[in-house]
């Protein structure tokens, strides 16, 4: 018998890690992880080759994360709002054809975020190379020149990635006024004034 006042061992070994005559495998194994990784990489490469010279990803807006805890963080969102596209002089139908993600559900709650995403769209438009519908047709209004089309290369990464804020500490100069001022004395005087009043 086991010593001391311990829990009586009563483990339930019901998970089957190998197939047997009593039943099939009950635990899902990921022995194909390396193979799947290779398959995904080859699929991405095949898609990039099929849509070349278009970029592999769509242009996404800069959005703030939900809730008060994470609202200071900015990340890439699902798609641009209809208001942002209108301010940038684009229609939702045309935007989808030139690699811009559109989200008709999202709404703008601040002018700052609206202006930031409009500026993002304007930057994308300035770098955009629009090929004619037919390769040998004449260059129409809105299409890029033949030289630009020939020089176009495919972008494989994130389209216009967000710039990370610099983590450098800015050092300030200590002035004579800072040296003479006593924060402790200022706090004590303010405390006395509130007591008197």
From TrEMBL:
Coiled coil: none annotated. InterPro entries: Ribosomal_eL13 (IPR001380), Ribosomal_eL13_CS (IPR018256). Pfam families: Ribosomal_L13e. GO terms for biological process: translation. One of its GO terms (molecular function) is structural constituent of ribosome. Keywords: Ribonucleoprotein, Ribosomal protein. GO terms for cellular component: cytosolic large ribosomal subunit. PANTHER family: 60S RIBOSOMAL PROTEIN L13, LARGE RIBOSOMAL SUBUNIT PROTEIN EL13. HAMAP family: Ribosomal_eL13. Belongs to the eukaryotic ribosomal protein eL13 family. This is 60S ribosomal protein L13. It comes from Rhizochromulina marina.
């Amino acid at each position: 018998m086991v010593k001391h006042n311990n829990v009586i061992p009563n483990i339930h070994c019901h998970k089957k890690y190998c197939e047997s005559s009593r039943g099939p495998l009950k635990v899902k194994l990921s022995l194909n992880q390396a193979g799947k990784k290779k398959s995904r990489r080859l699929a991405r490469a095949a898609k990039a080759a099929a849509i070349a010279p278009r970029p592999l990803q769509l242009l996404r807006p800069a959005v703030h994360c939900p809730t008060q805890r994470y609202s200071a963080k900015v990340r890439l969102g699902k798609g641009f709002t209809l208001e942002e596209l209108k301010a940038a002089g684009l229609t939702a139908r045309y935007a989808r054809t030139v690699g811009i993600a559109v989200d008709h559900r999202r709404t703008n709650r601040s002018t700052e975020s609206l202006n930031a995403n409009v500026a993002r769209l304007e930057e994308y438009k300035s770098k955009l190379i629009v090929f004619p519908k037919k390769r040998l047709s004449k260059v129409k209004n809105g299409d890029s020149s033949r030289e630009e089309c020939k020089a176009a290369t495919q972008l494989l990464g994130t389209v216009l990635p967000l710039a990370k804020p610099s983590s450098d500490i800015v050092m300030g100069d200590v002035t004579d006024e800072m040296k003479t001022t006593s924060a402790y004395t200022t706090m004590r005087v303010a405390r006395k004034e509130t007591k008197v009043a």
